[in-house]
Amino acid sequence: MYHAVAREAHDPNQLCVSPERFAAQMTWLARRGLRGVSVVSLLRAVQRGDAGGLVGITFDDGYRSVLHAALPVLRRHGFGATAFVLSDPPAPENTWDEGTAWPLLAADEIRELAAEGVEIGSHGATHTRLTGLPHRRLAAEVADSRAALGEVAGGEVQGFAYPWGAMDAAARAAVAAAGYTYACAVSTPYRGLSTLALPRAYVGDRDGGFELALKRRLHKVNSIWKGRFA
Ligand SMILES: [Zn+2]
Fold first, then answer.
1. Alpha-carbon span 226 to 230, nearest angstrom
2. Per-residue confidence of the chain (230 residues) as pLDDT tens digits?
């Protein structure tokens, strides 16, 4: 799970990975015979029983740096990825976090990413926390964003990523009702693991090979362990 690929002096939430670090992390995958793919491709491979060596790569929020800094690196390796973007951001930059007003992808840039083979998923309409939302607002964030992004990207939107990773049973039901085939959480509770609450591992700027190897192993163990209760 990535957010921005940029060098930012002020990054209190550690959402940025520098372009150099990102390139090194993708090289780390490639050298181990691993291949970065979109989540939808990963899930199809899992269904076929053919997901060995595949790693889902995701970017939340839809920062412009995904297009300019991450895409060239992905392309170099022939990797895919999923970008979870907002359909109706409150401003052209991040306004939901304090002091990190980084520019977001415009509609034509989202289209460009899609044309380059990056899967476009929804991160909601406005980056609103879904837990506890009234039914109608929940539907607007989840269903309306799917329809809007489908038009922007020019294809069916399959995936959703919960803003702040926050979800409950009502949010998962809204995602299913809206027609998504999967949704990404951050960490999932016991009994919560499903294709509507896929766990992800945070990858940051401090993560070198040792940390990536550890995170990969922990992610696997965590998924298998929680899968027993799903
Ligand atoms: Zn987000």
1. 7
2. 999 999 998 999 999 999 999 999 999 999 999 999 999 999 999 999 999 999 999 999 999 999 999 999 999 999 999 999 999 998 999 999 888 899 999 999 999 999 999 999 999 999 999 999 999 999 999 999 999 999 999 999 999 999 999 999 999 999 999 999 999 998 877 777 889 999 999 999 999 999 999 999 998 888 887 777 65
Task: Using the mean position of ligand 1's atoms as its centre, give its distance from the Cα of residue 129 in Å.
Answer: 9
Asked whether 15 and 4 are in contact (CB, 8 A), the reply is yes
Q: How far apart are the CA of 181 and the centre of ligand 1, in A?
A: 20
Cα separation, 126 vs 144, in Å, equals 11
CA distance to 50, 214, 216, 218, per residue, from 221 (Å): 19, 11, 9, 5
CA of 144 to the centre of ligand 1 (A): 17
Dist. CA 48 → ligand 1 center (Å): 30
The architecture of the domain spanning 4-227 is Alpha-Beta Barrel (3.20)
Q: At 229, is the secondary structure helix, strand, or coil?
A: coil
Q: How far is the CA of 56 from the centre of ligand 1 (A)?
A: 17
The dihedral sign for the CA sequence 84, 190, 204, 42: negative
Q: Ligand 1 center to residue 49 CA distance, Å?
A: 31
